[in-house]
Design a protein that fits this description.
The termini are far apart. The chain has a single domain, classed as Replication Fork Single-Stranded DNA Binding Protein, CATH 3.90.198. About 25% of the residues lie in helices and about 20% in strands. With about 325 residues, the protein is α+β, with helices and mostly antiparallel strands. The chain is built from 7 helices and 10 strands. Strands 1, 2, 3, 4, 5, 6, 7 and 8 form an 8-stranded antiparallel sheet that branches. About 10% of the residues have low confidence.
């Protein structure tokens, strides 16, 4: 005989909420700080799988289909030295004699993005993150500071990723013209070894080296997933669809299609006719939706802004 008691034997324990996905990325935002200043201290860590790849570096582009408003981020193949349709069409439009083409090139502009592992040493705005190892994505401004630390024009070089002699990085992010500004961020003067729990790892003994590697393996997010991502067939089709629906037909389109065929061995998809109000309804805006870049001001209206700072601000918000 079937037992129906379970249906009527419920308790609060049966309705537990699923655990939230653990935080993997570290973000700094002046608006979340005190009086629009976000202050915290981190130290950069090596990528245990390959310490020479402790800085992931790639070029990304936000593409949007003007016919459907579908959009997605695409990693540019030039990041790994491959021929790139995105790079090719950008420069063909940028170098065109046509003002309209030059304006259109902005639709294919790329931004350089970096990512590294950090350990949060002190963050009073989010104390729950103290001691954690997270991925920090950043733009050219912070990258210049890292490279300046390793290859200074004057003084002693320091490697931020050195677990024994690396110097912590002080975030003092301010709000300027609505964007995060990193001009006051810097590496502190004193070297500081990695701290595991309450223990500072100061001695380079075999035991400590083993402990450090095991700790990095156990606590580090997958930094490789923040590197260049190869295009799938769907990515390629979307890119070519955006190109055909954005750029007027002519020599530029012909050259781009030839490049695409030589790279992928397949022809570009046919352009999509624009729907009319009386015929085809507009497709759902969530079809290929991903996080979008914040609204970026036109360069000519904001000539005084520090574009390096703006790029770092964009990656904080991704």
């Amino acid at each position: 005989m079937e037992d129906y008691n379970d249906i009527f034997s419920l308790s609060a324990e049966d309705f537990k909420e699923e655990d939230k996905k653990p935080v993997e990325r570290y973000r700094v935002d002046a608006k979340q700080g005190t009086d629009n200043v976000y202050t915290s201290v981190v130290r950069f860590l090596p990528w245990w799988k390959n310490s020479k790849e402790s800085i992931k570096n790639k070029w990304t582009c936000w593409l949007e289909d003007p016919d459907t408003d579908d959009g997605m981020y695409v990693d540019c193949p030039s990041s790994i030295g491959k021929k790139s349709i995105l790079q090719d069409i950008f420069w063909k439009l940028k170098k065109s004699d046509s003002i309209a083409d030059q304006e259109l090139s902005k639709k294919f502009s790329r931004r350089q993005q970096f990512a590294s592992l950090v350990q949060v040493i002190k963050d009073d705005h989010h104390p729950e993150l103290n001691g954690k190892v997270l991925v920090y994505q950043y733009g050219v401004k912070v990258h210049k500071q890292i490279m300046g630390e390793m290859k200074p024009k004057y003084g002693t070089p320091h490697v931020p990723f050195d677990v024994f002699e690396g110097r912590p990085f002080l975030f003092q992010v301010t709000l300027v013209s609505g964007f995060n500004n990193y001009d006051e961020c810097k590496f502190v003067d004193a070297e500081e070894p990695v701290k595991i729990g309450d223990d500072l790892i100061t001695e380079k003994s075999p035991e400590n080296l083993k402990k450090l590697v095991e700790w990095l393996k156990e606590t580090s997010p997958d930094l490789d997933s923040y590197g260049y991502r190869e295009w799938t067939n769907d990515t390629n089709d979307f890119v070519m669809k955006v190109v055909r629906n954005t750029v007027p037909k002519g020599k530029i389109i012909e050259s781009i299609e030839k490049l695409n065929t030589s790279l992928t061995g397949k022809d570009a998809p046919a352009s999509t006719p624009k729907p009319t109000p009386a015929s085809t309804p507009k497709p759902s805006e969530t079809k290929l939706e991903e996080e979008k870049l914040p609204n970026i001001p036109e360069t000519d209206e904001f000539a005084d802004l520090d574009l390096d700072n703006i790029e770092d601000d964009l990656y904080d918000k991704l």
